[in-house]
UniProtKB/TrEMBL annotation:
Family annotation (InterPro entries): 6-blade_b-propeller_TolB-like, Cyt_c-like_dom, Cyt_c-like_dom_sf, Glc/Sorbosone_DH, Haem-bd_dom_put, Quinoprot_gluc/sorb_DH_b-prop
Top-rank EC class of the record's enzyme: oxidoreductase
The protein, known as: Soluble aldose sugar dehydrogenase YliI
SUPFAM superfamilies: Cytochrome c, Soluble quinoprotein glucose dehydrogenase
Record keyword Iron-sulfur present: no
Organism placement in taxonomy: Bacteria, Pseudomonadati, Planctomycetota, Planctomycetia, Pirellulales
Gene Ontology MF annotations: electron transfer activity; heme binding; metal ion binding; oxidoreductase activity
Enzyme Commission number: 1.1.5.-
Length: 968
């Protein structure tokens, strides 16, 4: 057997080699594409940009970056406890380990986790080799400590064994802050958090209390010792003579000042402080300064019952509402020569939005503020290099170091092509003749495109080549200016719909859509917020004339949800999708063809047992499991993958074994009336939430972006796949009963009564709908099922909407809502109350009116307190992930036994993490069992939650919610 397998593999390799050589001899070389007019962007550039400083270096959840004194090196810390130095240079590949803090733990704590927050060099490092670190230590029940380490000399320093000296400690909690900075005065400034989790705000009520070290900026002298302390308290600290106060406190009233910055010319200290639900703050830190927390959140009153500290509250110098920022991260006060316009500016960014700003104190005492650039990074730290470089550190999108540089991009907003005919991609739009050098390609498996047909082209300026790889560790390399084109049409009706572009420039992929005019002569650039077009499609039934349908071109942000960093942005032009055989090629694939014509540098080879090998989902000759897994991979895995941006943490990548998909659980989003539901119930699609969500329109539809039409063949495929799985005893009972029902011959009234039994339950309706999509229900019975299903409650009705012409459906809001359609209507409290307690609105599932213990998110009254106007509230309902307040951010924990658990972070310490799941259950996880704890950009609140309501119903519901009043 082994010999035969080896022989077959050798034969396969020989055939592949022969194919490649033949292709090289016969395939024409791609001519250079010289006509590109896709340069820049349709909007004016920002004043600054980020550029990867060390493209070949990545870190694992890095937390801080520092210039190494007197050397061409940077020092980088990682959350897990490792400290590295790197040589500054674009070609740098190596990281030199300075220390792994886990190795410093005593034997009894071996295997425990640490959380390294920051590192700072002593101002006289060249003389004393002292490095200060702040980290969460697991000893004594867990605490945060600042320690001094001594480094060896030489070009690759390490920690001198046994040199750790603990300087100061304080209790650990959700907010540790932990930033270290030496001031112009030579003293060490230490930022501490309030030691609490997100809820309730300042749970220890410590922000105004100067008798402890929490929620403060500390100032100590580490070059002297005072009594039993490992440091001295400067004599001019504000509270050294205040009874019961801690003399180390320099300023207080802070929540979580994760990073601070010092102006080494003026001595000014600035702190970026993470707010609670509404505001992010930048404070100028002064002697005895009271920044207000928790009495104030920024300039807004929060907890008036808290006793104020000993000094007056000073408002922030800059505050951002959560519509602008969500987790501010401080940087340096810039004093380099490389960016002269930033001189004297405190530079800071936002971990969630990726925006970078500056604030500067002017000579008259006022403050100027500027937006420097918007990025895709999760900013966690900044530092200024010894040559004036301003470095920015990404936490976990890329784990890379970037440099802030002046934007040298010209303003291309006036010349960027507004019409497809102006792009240089096509010689003629009449027959979509591509320009010389623009080459067509096809993919192995098409994503569901609402029935549209796709044509694809690759456009590379000049004679550049794409470098692809099948390795997960290697990123593909695309030449500057590469454009990937996907044209969507309904060719049987001669309808051109949309042409989508992905444009690669300066390391960033930008999506654009061009929507075709009704005449099909040209397409116009779609605004970044997206748009839609009404279609009239000839009906199969001549009596009906035309079927009306809406085609939507997605917003830019919607495109980025699928074309995300975890998927490396490109979904179609990847090796496992380019295995499609070229027609009449004698075995040549798209990949070998593109390689032979010099569009791809080298065709990476896929092994015969490659788990990412895709097959045509609708090729009945292929194994059913392969077909279903290929379908789910192409349609769903860009979000549903480890590290993806899906709210519900299950995975649909084909290269993962089924037992690793994490589908044997509920979703937390809801079960929609399904009995004993799980994401996938082997043998029983009628209890499988995955099946339900891909079978319906409106709220809870998947995919919730990019599709507004149910894929009947896809539904039938997944139904057959789940039914084929070995199931539990009694699984599939509903489906079996339906099979019997479908086979019965009887009077219409009797058949209608039987169908009515099935549409009374979600599971029965789902089983019936699967047969409708599969085409196994008689026409008469189909009409009865659609009529009765469309009159059922909301969770069931949505399954039948797809069988009703769009113009005849209930006029619900759908996925893309103009807020004015709701705000323009007068709401009724009593009607809204009925909706609130019906299954048409989902608010009460997570938001109790006033009891926070019964809520997953904020209570209705908490929401009303924050948003006093419906015009302010509605955008957050329509786009719940637009800004996610920190207390309600979703976290996902991956445990060492393979479990994936998602929910709100209730508690985080060295001992345990407590998550509140969407089912309102508290899950306690030992810290040692957690391999990864990831914060999601997505809100736990689902998108499109109003989509099943009409505009009037939504207005009524909002009016009722407002009538519940605000929290006191």
């Amino acid at each position: 057997m082994l010999f035969r397998a080896s022989f077959r593999l050798m034969l396969l390799l020989c055939l592949l080699t022969a194919t490649l050589r033949a292709a090289e001899k016969t395939a024409p070389t791609r001519p250079a594409w010289t006509k590109s007019r896709i340069v820049g962007a349709p909007q004016a550039p920002e004043p600054y940009r980020l550029e990867s400083a060390f493209p070949q270096l990545r870190f694992e959840r890095p937390t801080s970056i520092e210039q190494f004194p007197g050397a061409n090196r940077l020092l980088v810390t990682e959350m897990g406890g490792k400290v590295f130095t790197i040589v500054k240079g674009a070609a740098t590949k190596e990281k030199d380990l300075v220390v792994d803090l886990k190795g410093l733990l005593p034997q009894e704590l071996a295997g425990k986790n640490v959380s390294l927050l920051d590192a700072e060099f002593h101002p006289q490092f060249g003389e004393n080799r002292s490095l200060f670190i702040c980290y969460v230590h697991p000893g004594n029940g867990g605490h945060t400590r600042v320690s001094r380490l001594t480094l060896t000399g030489g070009s690759t320093p390490s920690v001198v064994p046994g040199s750790e000296q603990v300087i100061i400690t304080w209790p650990s909690g959700g907010h540790n802050a932990g930033c270290l900075e030496f001031g112009k005065d030579g003293f060490l400034y230490i930022a501490t958090g309030d030691g609490s989790g997100p809820n309730p705000p300042d749970g220890r009520t410590t922000g105004q209390d100067v008798s402890d070290l929490l929620g403060a900026i500390l100032r100590i002298d580490i070059d002297r010792q005072q009594g039993d302390l490992a440091y001295a308290i400067p004599a001019d600290n504000p509270f050294v003579n205040t009874q019961t106060a801690r003399g180390e406190v320099w300023a207080y009233g802070l929540r979580n000042p994760f990073k601070i910055g010092v102006d080494m010319e003026s001595g000014d200290v600035f702190a970026a402080d993470n707010g609670w639900e509404s505001w992010e703050m930048v404070h100028r830190i002064v002697r005895g300064g009271n920044c207000g927390w928790p009495i104030m959140e920024g300039r807004a009153l929060l907890r008036s019952e808290v006793k104020p500290g000993p000094t007056p509250i000073i408002p922030p110098v800059k505050d951002h509402p959560h519509t602008e920022a969500n987790s501010v991260i401080g940087g340096p006060v810039y004093r380099g020569a490389k960016l002269p316009q930033l001189a004297g500016s405190f530079v800071y960014g936002d971990y969630i939005t990726g925006t970078i700003w500056s604030v500067r104190r002017e000579s008259d005492g006022s403050y100027s503020h500027a937006t420097l650039c918007d990025t895709d990074q999760r900013i966690v730290s900044f530092t200024q290099g010894n040559e004036g470089e301003l470095y920015v550190l990404d936490y976990d999108f890329t784990g890379q170091i970037y440099e802030l540089l002046p934007s040298d991009l010209p303003d291309t907003s006036a010349t960027f092509p507004r019409r497809l005919s102006e792009t240089g991609l096509f010689t003629s739009l009449e027959n979509l003749e591509p320009a010389p050098g623009v080459v067509p390609y096809s993919v192995q498996v098409e994503r569901w495109l609402d029935g549209a047909h796709a044509q694809r082209w690759l456009a590379i300026p000049g004679d550049g080549q794409v470098q692809l790889s099948t390795s997960k560790e290697e990123s593909p390399v695309y030449p500057e200016g590469t454009v990937l084109v996907k044209h969507l049409s309904l060719p049987e009706h001669k309808l051109r719909l949309e042409t989508q572009l992905l444009h690669f420039e300066r390391g960033v992929w930008r999506p654009y859509s061009y929507l075709w005019n009704e005449a099909g002569t040209d397409a116009e650039l779609v605004d970044s917020i997206g748009t839609q077009r009404g279609l009239k499609i000839p009906s199969k039934d001549a009596k009906e004339g035309f079927v009306e349908r809406t085609w939507r071109a997605s917003a830019v942000n919607e495109c980025k949800l699928c074309h995300n960093a975890e998927s490396r942005n490109v979904l179609g032009f990847v090796p496992h999708q380019l295995t499609r055989l070229v027609a009449s090629s004698g075995g040549e694939t798209e990949l070998t063809r593109l390689s032979a014509m010099k569009a791809v540098a080298k065709a990476p080879t896929n092994s015969a047992d490659d788990q990412l090998r895709l097959v045509d989902p609708h090729d009945a000759a292929q194994p059913l499991d392969e077909r279903a897994r290929s379908y789910l991979h192409v349609n769903c895995s860009m979000c549903h993958q480890p590290g993806g941006n899906a709210i519900v943490s299950f995975f649909l990548r084909k290269d993962l074994p089924f037992e690793k998909l994490n589908t044997s659980k509920g979703t937390g989003i809801g079960t929609f009336g399904l009995r004993d539901a799980k994401l996938i119930v082997p043998g029983d699609p009628a209890r499988s939430v995955l099946m339900y969500r891909m079978s319906k329109l409106g709220y809870a539809r998947m995919p919730y972006i990019g599709s507004q039409v149910v894929d009947s063949r896809g539904v039938a495929l997944i139904d057959a796949w789940i039914r084929s799985m070995p199931g539990e005893a009694g699984a599939g009972a509903v489906a079996q009963l339906l099979e019997l029902t479908s086979a019965l011959n009887g009077e219409p009234a009797a058949r209608a009564a039987k169908i009515d039994e099935f549409v009374k339950s979600t599971g029965g309706a789902l089983a019936l709908v699967a047969r409708l999509h599969g085409g196994t229900v008689k026409d008469d019975d189909r009409a009865i099922a659609v009529r009765q299903g469309s009159a059922a409650p909301t969770d069931i009705r949505g399954l039948f909407d797809t069988f009703i012409p769009e113009s005849q459906r209930r006029p619900t809001l759908g996925a893309n809502v103009d807020p004015q359609t709701i705000l323009s209507k007068s709401g009724d409290v009593q009607r809204g109350k009925l909706i609130f307690y019906s299954d048409g609105a989902r608010c009460r599932n997570c938001h109790d009116a006033s009891d926070r213990k019964l809520s997953i998110g904020p209570t209705i009254q908490d929401i009303n307190k924050k948003y006093t106007k419906l015009t302010d509230l509605l955008p957050h309902i329509l786009q719940p992930s637009l800004k996610v307040d920190e207390p309600f951010a979703a976290y996902t924990a991956l445990t060492d036994d393979g479990r994936v658990i998602g929910g709100l972070l209730v508690e985080q310490s060295d001992r345990q993490v407590v998550l509140k799941t969407a089912e309102k259950k508290l899950v306690q996880l030992p810290r040692a069992s957690i391999e990864e704890l990831r914060k999601s950009e997505k809100s736990l609140m689902p998108d499109n939650i109003l989509s099943d309501l009409t505009a009037q119903e939504a207005a009524d519901l909002l009016t009722y919610l407002a009538s519940l009043g605000a929290a006191k």
